[in-house]
């Protein structure tokens, strides 16, 4: 009993220690599985020197994935206030405001027969302005904190890069250690590894590429249509598309 109690206490302490690093490790693990072929290519170039190959592969992943992603998020956050203000200005007057008012009048006419289910005064545009005003305040409050939170962003970025390096360098050993705990035959372990890797790569890589393509096309469409802050709304579209991944 004393041993079990001590074991539970040690497990709880271990969870408390790794909790701040769990998200970074999970993101790094997904990136490592998806980009494992990059590490294999670097291994061939470095003639089997795994730490040098892992450093080279981590550098490539950082330049191609983590760096652009951080830049896109930062630019979108800094332009969010202006984007919300542009939408509010269109809702306060102009063709968009007139179209919403006409739709509001049509809706009120259609649902006039059901007064028990509808508020007495239905003003869609006013409600939208309230929501956007609240969103604008939040964006205005948090956009300057992008600079003050630089330390936290850089720390998270470095943690992900460090975990990617460790997983690239020690991935084979970690895989062997985990598979040694699985009570299956060696050939079944190989099948299991292949299936898990395929599911992770297919699910995450496929959805991320799809989200990026949709955000790019939506941003280009907004730009062609003359919508203000097309880049910001394209990034918002990417974020909305990635909700299933989350």
Annotate the secondary structure layout.
Layout: H1 2-18, H2 22-34, H3 36-45, H4 50-78, H5 80-92, H6 95-110, H7 124-142, H8 145-148, H9 150-179, H10 186-224, H11 230-241
Helix pairs in contact: 2-9, 3-4, 4-9, 4-11, 5-7, 10-11
What features would you describe in this structure?
- It is built from 11 helices and no strands.
- The protein is mainly α and 246 residues long.
List the defining traits of the structure above.
mainly alpha; 11 helices; 0% strand
Strand proportion, as a percent range, falls in: under 5%
Count of DSSP H/I helices: 11
Helix percent reads: over 70%
Mean pLDDT over the full residue set: 78
Q: What is this structure, in a nutshell?
A:
By secondary structure, the chain is an all-alpha fold. It has 11 helices and no strands.
